[in-house]
Amino acid sequence: MNRPEHPTELNEFDCAFLCPVKKVGQLLEGKWTTLILRELLSGKKRYFELRNALEGVSPKVLASRLRMLEVEGIIAREMIDTVPPSTRYELTDLGRQVKPLLEAMAVFGAALIQAQAAGK
Hints:
Helix content: 40-55%
Strand content: 5-15%
Order of helices and strands: HHEHHEEHH
Number of helices: 6
Shape: globular
Strand order of the largest sheet: 1-3-2
Radius of gyration: 17 Å
């Protein structure tokens, strides 16, 4: 069976070798990754801005997730020549493609919260 070059339906993906849904799941796994991406959707952020926006994230976890997202090509890091030196992060072109996914997660999350509040 020939698979389309740009599948649009979940059942059109050939997951025998590499499942795209699994790849995204692995990328986004962990409590903080999606929240970091959510914060970067609005534009460039310095490390301390991300840390302040993500109440409860440890510096070690934040630094680790930022490094992983940079290695994956989802975010870009810019060193700023200040005293003390600071770092600014932004989504790459590839990273900006996560916006519809996060928007869908927000819609589903709102529905889930509403259903749970209604006792369903």
